[in-house]
UniProtKB/TrEMBL annotation, chain A:
It is found in: Membrane. One of its GO terms (molecular function) is cytokine receptor activity. It comes from Balaenoptera acutorostrata. Its main location: membrane. InterPro entries: FN3_dom, FN3_sf, Hematopoietin_rcpt_Gp130_CS, Ig-like_fold, LIF-R-like_Ig-like, Type1_Cytokine_Rcpt_Type2. GO terms for cellular component: plasma membrane. It is a single-pass type I membrane protein. The keyword Disulfide bond applies. Residues 841-864 are annotated as: Disordered. Belongs to the type I cytokine receptor family. Type 2 subfamily. Residues 217-311, 316-411, 508-620 form the Fibronectin type-III domain. This is Oncostatin-M-specific receptor subunit beta isoform X3.
TrEMBL record, chain B:
PANTHER family: CARDIOTROPHIN-LIKE CYTOKINE FACTOR 1 (PTHR21353:SF7), PTHR21353. The lineage of its organism: Eukaryota, Metazoa, Chordata, Craniata, Vertebrata. This is Cardiotrophin-like cytokine factor 1. It holds the Pfam family PRF. The gene is CLCF1. It is found in: Secreted.
Amino acid sequence: MRSMVDDARIPKPGFWSNWSSWEEADAQNSLGHDPLLVFPKDKLVEEGSNVTICYVSRIHRDNISCYLEGVQIYGEQLDRSVSAFELKNVSFIRKRGTNVFCKVDQGGALGGIVLFVSKVLEEPKDFSCETQDLKTLTCTWDPGSDTGLSKQPSQSYTLFESFSGKKTLCKHRNWCNWQVAQDSQETYNFTLVAENYLRKRSVSILFNLTQRVHPMTPYNLFPKNVGATNATMTWKVHSIGNNSTLLCQLELLAEGKVIQQHNVSIKVNGEYLLSELEPDTEYVARVRCAYTNHFWKWSELISQKFNTAEAAPSEAPDVWRNMKMVSGHPTVSLFWKPLSKVHANGKILFYNVIVENLDKPSRLEVLSIPAPTRSTELTLDQCSYQIHVTAHNSVGPSPASVIVISGDPGNEEVESGRVNGTEDGFSVSWKPQSGDATGYVVEWCDGPQDLPCALQWKNLGPNTTSTVISSGAFRPGVRYNFRIYEISAKRMAHLLEKKAGYLEELAPSDNPQVVMSNLTSHSFTLSWKDYSTESQPGFIQGYHVYLKPKAGEQCPPAFEKTVLPEDSLCCKHTIDNPEQKTFVVENLQPESVYEFFVTAYTSVGEGPLDAFTKITTLDEYSHILIRIILPMIFCVLIVMIICYLKHQWLKEKCYPDIPDPYKSSVLSLIKSKENPHLTIMNINDCVPDAIEVINKPEGSKIQFLGTRKSLTETEFTKPAYIYLLPTEKNYSGPGPCICFENFTYNQAASDFASCGHFPVTPQAPPHQLGPLTSPENLLKALEQNYMNSLGEIPAGEANLNYVSQLASSTSGDKDSLPTNPPEPALCSEYKMQMVIPLGLASAPPSENSSLSSTTLLGQGEHYR
Amino acid sequence: MDLRAGDSWGMLACLCAVLWHLPAVPALNRTGDPGPGPSIQKTYDLTRYLEHQLRSLAGTYLNYLGPPFNEPDFNPPRLGAETLPRATVNLEVWRSLNDRLRLTQNYEAYSHLLCYLRGLNRQAATAELRRSLAHFCTSLQGLLGSIAGVMAALGYPLPQPLPGTEPTWTPGPAHSDFLQKMDDFWLLKELQTWLWRSAKDFNRLKKKMQPPAAAVTLHLEAHGF
């Protein structure tokens, strides 16, 4: 054991005493009744130390296990009952200490210690002292890590001043107050001592009190007499001692930036006039102060916001106009831009528009338009007008902006050009027209053409011939039209040039609506007249006509082969004139399927690939057929109509009901055969035996005598027969006939019946008429009799029974079927003038009669 | 059953009158003297709550002590903790305890444990641990008051502390820090056992104090009837 004095008041280095003499201790005796003891108890060491732990036990060491924080440790046996463990470079674990314990494996005896490992005490950093009022010194430092444990309190700090010999125990870990003595001590030598159970650390500073003055924050900073361009700032400071002067720094900030800085020396009250301020602007004034005698530190800042007063606007508003004719009157739309904050000098309340007629003296027209309206419309007449526009705030008006409008709306035609857009905007240039231009104006619409125009303009100086128009509203693929005006000395605007351009051209977004016409077997025509080239997202340079011929077919001559994006082969024709909106596809194969598609193209590319339209060319002869067949059909129709209208006439001409015997073919047949003397019997040549007069009114309907009743509602008059010459007495036959003698007739006929009537009773049904009713029998009989008459019977011998051909028209009525065949009226039915057997001559006039007539005709033909 | 309209109105009026006077029925009035039953129930609930609270606190505190004290199978000998009141008792003995003795043992145990616990609080180095311990001490103080209430309700006097036997927490110079940690360990362990035993005690007491269900009668002192 040895010792040393450790006191701050005693200058270092101190001296250690000599070591004391060794003392011996018996471990076994110290054990007492405990089975196991662990040493050293509650040891306090610093981090990084090496510690030896030992235990004393009567139990064999093999039955004892020792642990450091739960982890078994293995030591060295010093003698029979004592073992030691060397712990190297121990570290801080917790404030309640590191647990080391040993336990007997059987029996449960347990002994242990707590090793308190403290963090190493650090030297205080950044130790400094200062005063705000020369009365109290405040010393501060960075204490470093806390060395407190449950066995050791946190390190203490003591402030010692060597000149006065005073010291104070600091209550806080990182700062301490020191009362300045009244004896005006100027120089101080402070020593700060940090101390715990294990170590002391100290740090010293030497300073002059007046060189460590850190003034308190100024207060009551206010603006006073604030005008449009100046303001007076006042503030106060805490006094430091007697007659001390402070240097204060006044800063003026606008929009966060320091724009003015002024130094002011004051004692207690500060005041400064800030000038060159902008009207109606928010400023921030801030002040800090320092001790004038010796600058140590600025005080904390104090800030104050204030606004300057308004002033009249300093600049005329930027005005532009747009002229148009409304209902025959020139109408001027006036637009103006809001004044910038710098020029408005306050809140603009309204705009005054004064209209002055230049052509004839009249009253000035004054319009007051409340802000923030930025346009107005004036309807004028054909005179010239001068328009003054002024902006007003609460203080007064701005200078006037003057513009002159002539009565002519100025729709003069000027050169149109194109302008290229770049990333920066549109580079517009123009050629000056007259030498007296006072400026130029470029106007345009910010939005696309199909939207209402948000008129924009840019004023340029008289010597300018080009400018770059840029706007955040410009979009790629939108056509912008620029108009360049020249402002004359009379403040009139004349249109110089028109320019159109795209910030960035795009490919067309839609394709033309194509109409197909004039389809032939070899060509068809495509047209897209409605396609507007103006409203496309780029300058249309032309059109591509795509044609898909049928497989294996070559492209028509005007087309070239190309490959579509989907890798299909196609024919393409390029039209390089954007105004050519028709195209004739020629040299096609007839009756073939083609597909076509038309798209416009710009410098960037062509429109989207839409669906192709199918078309089939016509057959090669179909047009010829159409030219022939249609007129033919027309002609046939005409003929049919005529025939229909003139059918009565035709009937009479072609197939009359009573044929002309002179025209009979039978006659010519007979003549040509054997009997050239045969002729048509003329009624004049015939001497009548009896004349039957039939009184028949016209228009009467057919009637059958057997029925004795009219079949229709028409009044019927029974024919009156006058028997001029009776042919046979007691004749009971129903119908009278006119009988002629004619040598051409078969004589046998007269033998059979005197008057040629078929002796059939009225009661006999038609089927009982005999075998002649059948066509075969009739034909046979006819043939036989005819042959007889031609070959065997000599002329003049025949006693013929002639049936008059002046038959009643009633017999031709097919609507009424006869029910009583042997009616006299039936005798009037026309029969062919030939030799007929008697039986046949009186054949019942049923439908068989007409049949026999037909048969005879057929027979006649048979003989040819 | 033949009910007429007049009967229905009469029954409704009767029911309304009963409901109107229901607060006046002493057996249902909670402001009346309910006997020791609710106090015992409350005390029982409090022991369960403290049991849960201590589980969390002991975990934090034993971690603060470090290994081996926070190891689950650590079971050191009761060297310096002999003065702590033991909760463990022979089952037969526990059953044979009368109510007064049972309550007295609980009261005395918690009086001692509370005192030791306050000493533990003073030793704690971290502010958070001190807050937790202080909160638990307040709760334990409440349990002590609750037991005292039960005893008063049953008419038992509170045990008077013998002079000179007031437990104190003054670790002597020979008392090593390791032994101190072992005492802390045993204090928390004994406290846990006591809370568990108290839950049993008050549960038993609760059942004992509960009158048989058949004996429950509703005395209707319907004023105005």
